[in-house]
Amino acid sequence: MLSQEKIICHRLLDPRYGLYQLVLRGKIAATAQPGQFVHLKVGATTDPLLRRPLSIARIDRARGEITLFYRVVGRGTALLTDVKEQESLNVLGPLGKGFTKPAEGELLLVAGGIGIFPLFSLLEAVDRSRVKVKVMWGGENRQFLESAGLPILRELGVEYEAATLDGSLGQKGLVTALLESSLHRTRTSQEMHHSAVAGAGPKDSVLQVAACGPRGMLKAVTEICCRQGVPVEVCLEERMACGVGACLGCVCTVKTATGHKRRRVCAEGPVFDGREVVWDEG
Amino acid sequence: MKVDLTTRLAGLQLKNPVLTASGTFGFGEEYARFYDLALLGGITVKGITLEPRIGNPVPRIAETPSGILNAVGLENPGLEAFLSTYLPRLEKLKTAVIVNISGFSLEEYAKLAAALPENSCIAALEVNISCPNIKDGGMAFGTDPQSAGEVLAVTRKQTKLPLIAKLSPNVTDIVAIAKAVEENGADIISLINTLLGMRIDLDRGRPLLANTMGGLSGPAVRPVAVRMVYQVYQAVRLPIIGMGGISCWQDAVEFMLAGASAVSVGTANFINPLAPLEIINGLEAYCRQKGYHSVKELVGLAHRKEEPFDEEKR
């Protein structure tokens, strides 16, 4: 749980977007699951005070390594850029509850911006000889997507569709538009298939979506999936203190049979059933 | 040389003077994954109220220089669920359990005290008259000597368990509050709760916390806490549990020299889950190095007129 991880690789991927790759070797890789995160102590002083949560992007059990990607957004991540290869980092993890790993059927990974990072770990964990995986990824432009992981998608040979705000790669616009038209196509073809082969029910339930990105996007993805009757898991982000479920700082709200309840993003999440999340309440 | 770490605060007997602070330690389970909680002097669990509370909306946390603001708003499962679900699990921990209670009226404090069993793992009740993150009750009781006294008086009538009054630092005169709780049945005083603070988001031009204000904790508040422990030690006879930014053994020693008989580790758990254990070990090593047979000998040394550490050298 508390581990000194050795920094195997730490490099700047893209100065324009402040994107970095960090590879750590230690105990965490042995038990890490897709969608889980680690909590890093950055700097040796009390300012900044708290650890920084980063999702686990790749897990290499054979080498005992995990890969993290991060974007510099504040003081904590700015300080993190100073750590050097061969040094070690004090890491808490693996933490949280990750994605459900489908054993068969079809998995659609929907990412917004750096939300692709935790989805890499799920992509690599599923048995793609049994599960058909497709990635839909939206970002600012071609350069961002290239720097943030398109080479990994190509390396893994996974089918993907991109959406960019400026149209420099893939469809111009948001990833939610890609999702909407794709799910619509799938449903229509399934319905046709259904009327041809009566009682081929199981096909229906085997498509599932896993999504990570900004809250507004996750809400839209969940709405689209709900309309199409497709199960969806979302990976949430929240300001976090302890990371282990003790402080109740990072809650979200979910619908339950007995009314709205709080759930700890760090402990019951960060991955939740999108249909349970109350999106319009803090 | 063996150092005696056992600590007695009124009726509360502890194997060592290091506790964990309420609201930073859940109901213990989260940190039981890191070490055996029986190694601690005791744990103080998340504050409970009569009814379940969903707490404040997010963001509940904001980082500050060497500190954090929190506005959780006393989210907790309520008395009934605490008794049926959490208390049986706490029984298994083999450590002293202090239950923190919060009410929105005198009657609620009384009901809570009456309902918490005297013959269980519960070693003491911490009466929270200092939560800054709820609209009524909480800190409103702890910022006026008369109401602080009234809360302790009604609670006292309902239980034989040692009562710890947890004081708010958000007052002009901490000594007046300390005296009021002493006169009304408190056995022990714990201080400080968090300091009321706030941050504003420069991008949105709005308060960063959903609750607007929150309680400041962490190393940033430590000097304020040490000062208040020092003042209260001079003014009352009750034993003190000192807390406020304690992150390492040196901090714990500072509080004990100021007059605390025991200390609580709070925010530091979030950064270093092993902090309480490291503090226990550090305290013991410090006593050994200074030639003290018991950790009790440290308590209040900073109040002595003569140089405390010349004497031992003789």
- Which architecture name of the largest domain in chain A does CATH use? 3-Layer(aba) Sandwich
Strand order of the largest sheet of chain B: 3-4-7-8-9-10-15-16
Distance N terminus to C terminus of chain B?
Answer: 19 Å
Mean pLDDT metric of chain B: 94
Indicate the CATH architecture of chain B: Alpha-Beta Barrel
Q: What helical percentage do the residues of chain A reach?
A: 10-25%
The name CATH uses for the topology of the largest domain in chain A is Rossmann fold
Provide the CATH superfamily of the largest domain in chain A. Answer: Nucleotide-binding domain of ferredoxin-NADP reductase (FNR) module
Largest sheet of chain A: 7 strands, antiparallel
Share of residues in strands of chain A: 25-35%
Your description of this structure?
The complex is a heterodimer of chains A (282) and B (314). With 282 residues, chain A is an alpha/beta fold. Chain A has three domains: 2-95, Translation factors (Elongation Factor Tu (Ef-tu), domain 3); 105-235, 3-Layer(aba) Sandwich (Rossmann fold), CATH 3.40.50.80; 239-282, Dihydroorotate dehydrogenase B (pyrk subunit), domain 3, CATH 2.10.240.10. Chain A has helices spanning 75-80, 116-125, 142-148, 150-156, 175-196, 215-228, and strands at residues 2-14, 19-25, 37-40, 52-55, 58-60, 65-71, 88-95, 105-112, 131-139, 159-164, 171-172, 207-212, 232-235, 251-256, 259-264, 271-273. Chain A has a seven-stranded antiparallel beta sheet. In chain A, helix 6 (215-228) links the parallel strand 12 (207-212) and strand 13. In chain A, helix 5 (175-196) runs parallel beside helix 6. The longest helix of chain A has 22 residues, at 175-196. Chain A is globular and about 60 Å long. Chain A starts with a strand and ends in a 9-residue tail after the last strand. Chain B has 314 residues and is α/β, with parallel strands linked by helices. Chain B has one domain (7-313): Aldolase class I (TIM Barrel), CATH 3.20.20. Helices cover 33% and strands 20% of the residues of chain B. Chain B is globular. In chain B, helix 7 packs parallel to helix 8 (249-258). In chain B, strands 3-4-7-8-9-10-15-16 form an eight-stranded parallel β-barrel, surrounded by seven helices. A four-stranded antiparallel beta sheet of chain B has the order 5-6-14-11, with no helix packed on it. Chain B starts with 6 loop residues before the first strand and ends with a helix. In chain B, strand 9 (163-166), helix 6 (174-183) and strand 10 (188-191) form a beta-alpha-beta unit. Chain B has helices at 29-32, 78-91, 106-115, 139-142, 145-156, 174-183, 222-235, 249-258, 268-271, 275-290, 308-313; strands at residues 7-9, 12-14, 18-20, 42-48, 61-64, 67-70, 96-101, 122-128, 163-166, 188-191, 195-197, 200-201, 206-207, 214-217, 240-242, 262-265. The chains are: A alpha/beta (282), B alpha/beta (314). Chain A binds chain B through residues 1-2, 41, 46-51, 92, 238-252, 260-262, 267, 281-282, and chain B through 23-26, 30-31, 33-34, 46, 54-55, 57-68, 70, 72, 75, 210, 218-219, 247, 267, 269-274.
